[in-house]
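Hi Y.,

Following your request, here is the sequence exactly as I used it, all 878 residues.
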Amino acid sequence: MRKILIQFLFACLLVLPAYAQFTDNFSDGDFTNNPTWVGGIADFIVNPSLQLQSNNTVANSSYYLSTASTKATTAQWDFYCQLTFNTSSTNYVDVYLTSSASDLTISSITGYFVRIGNTADEICLYRKDAGGPVKIIDGVDGSTNTSNNTLKIRVVRNAANQWSLSRDITGTGNSYFSEGQTTDATYATSAFFGIYIKQSTASFFQRHFFDDFAVTNYVPDTTPPAIVSATATSNNMLDVLFNEPVELSSSQLPANYTVNNGIGAPATAVRDAVNAALVHLSFATSFPNRVNLQLTVNGVKDLAGNTQTNGSAGFSFFTALPFDILIDEIMADPTPVVGLPDAEWIELRNTSGFDINLQDWRLGKPSGQSGPMPNYLLKKDSFVLVCTGSAVAALSPFAPVISVTSFPSLGNAGDLLYLRSSQGLVIHTVNYSDAWYQNELKKAGGWTLEMKDPKNPCSGISNWAASTAAIGGTPGKKNSIDGTNTDASLPRLLRAYATDSVSIVLVFSEPLDSSKAAIASRYSISDGIGSPQSATPLSFLFNQVRLRLSTPLQRNKIYTVTSTAVTDCAGNAIAGNNTARVGLYESLQRYDVVVNEILFNPVPASNDYVEIYNRSNKIISLRNTYIANRNTAGAISSITQVSATDYLFFPGDYLVLTENATLVKNIFVANNPDAFIELSMPSFNDDKGNVILLNEQGAVIDEINYTDKWHFKLISNKEGIALERINYDDTTADNPQTLNVNEQSANWHSAAASVGYGTPTYKNSQFMMAAGVQGEITVTPDIVSPDNDGMDDFATISYQFPEPGYVANITIFDGAGRPVRYLQRNALNGLSGYYRWDGLGEKNLVLPVGIYVILTEVFNLKGKIKTFKNVIVLARRN
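Below is the corresponding structure, written out as tokens. Let me know if you'd prefer a different format.
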């Protein structure tokens, strides 16, 4: 037995030196070998990013892993740690640099450990005695009080047993900050290195990540400090970051720094009170904007006394302008997964030609914005992903990643996103929709939206499409569809509206160059008002400009506003289409606006539309107008606001309401392509239904109870044919619900074949003004040709009587005196009105050409009887 024990101890002595130094980056996907970790094996995994990740899902638990390590003196310990939660007294990590035993949970072990977290949210160095832990370096409070702590930790123990603790909150290992120094020689041996995790509730499960463990011999510092970065924080302030803490007196000597281009030495130099590697310089001479400058440093020492000689770093004072950084790629719908993680993100691309620090920049939507971005230098012509903190670990293998709190949720169907600089300036806006994928398969999820040409950042769908990369996107790289896509279209002034008597808002067809759009002299208003006092481009899209007038607008007057020399963000200047009408709108009353045309049975490739007409002498705001239908119980239903903002509707104008204007324009000719408003339309049945217009009080302005029986009788397939109002000055009855089909149909007819069966945005093909009645019965025209070509398709039989109560019978006779159509029987008339004959006989029989007689017999209860004969010619066009 003694011999066996001696052999075992000898073997241990041979093995231990092999563990004096070790490294593990888990690139083999395993932590059970090379080196071997012991302890809570089931409590850890190596994740797909090849990081050691916690896997314990027990509340209020403690667990550990350890591996053999005998290095204890003249040593350096380095490791990566990411905790995606705010630390606390019950949620922290202890990394044991040295331990006397493998089981880190027993109270009798001795050694040294780094605690990440605790009540003060700090990173500290402890000595572990058998009686308990003793804090020997007290780190900065609050350093782990964030939802995503990405850290590189370095601990050094030199030959004199002087300890130093440093951390880098970027996780890169390039920006270490000293937490402090101390001297302690209590324990000079070690057996194990390990990780101990304390966690409470489920919200902390599986949110600990570790990588790049390295225990090495400490090599004394003989290298002078190097400049990591020089960052202008204002036009006369410069922050110089070194790669290590610098000595106080030499770092605060202004003569040790100088900037070229005539700037010279700073007036003051102050080492940061928290980060000893950071020095703040203040200059008496301002930096020129967007000019590359050079800082030279001499005589600054590190804590080991090494002196910097002719160190240099480039920098510039840079105020970001619109489009310096672009939203270049969007992962709005990550599922089903194609090849990228199941996480939403936005990619930013720096196109400015300058390095830009994103600290305090924000992403947002009109409903709110994210928390500020961290201190991150986005190099020129480079990319970074922005996401929520929980997605960082999954996305990091693909690209540089920064996280923000309150990351905006990205709508699958579309959203308006903006990027705002630390100065509050909107730098880029994207108003995407799922139509931008231009691919039905890819818009279902798993693929990103990519920008084609970064030099054309405002063109919308024409400059975006789904990624063609095999994994579903190109995070951190040039887009798969990157190329030239020049914007050659000129901006157009679409419309204008007045919010009050001295404020006008102009609406353009695309985003404008906001600097040029803000020049008041580039606008003028007619009728002596002239140029406005001011012009303010409106975010977030910058396709609207608010003008402030010095002379107020007058009521009942239409003005013309003209825009000159404004350009879009690609530099195209407005030319034609640079005027718009404007005025003060009035309240909407009954029949001010009427339904003028209805397409309720579209072809499959199109959709419904309703054309409205302003028959009043008022300017109407469509923000006060609603469209609706009736449900099966007859109640007004599906009420939809025509426009969420003021949209002026001028006397004599036509506007078309539809869900998709493009689909309508693909089928019909639109004389005014801009006279469309897209909205979520009420449903209109293909056979019959109700189209109702309401004002903001809910009062009915016009109502049409249509039916497909109103179409021209010889049309067999009514699909894709609009019903047109024959005379928009003929109003419906006060109570349309009491009208029968024939009474309302008298003023409606199928749109003519010659115009493609619809006239959206312009005068109806079947339009006919009511003729002035000179006698008691008149018939117009003299010749009728019922072929639905839009010319004389029907006859109008107008009547006028000196008193109410007359009843009419109207019969059509052919030239031989035979009755061919009983048009009306015992029809009660008003003082004036009309009937229509469509040129057909009974049961829609097609009649031969020739001369016909319209016999109208009228009588009343007083015994008055009168007969009228009107001759009409029925013709056919070749």
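The first strand starts at residue 22 and ends at 24.

Thanks again,
Q.
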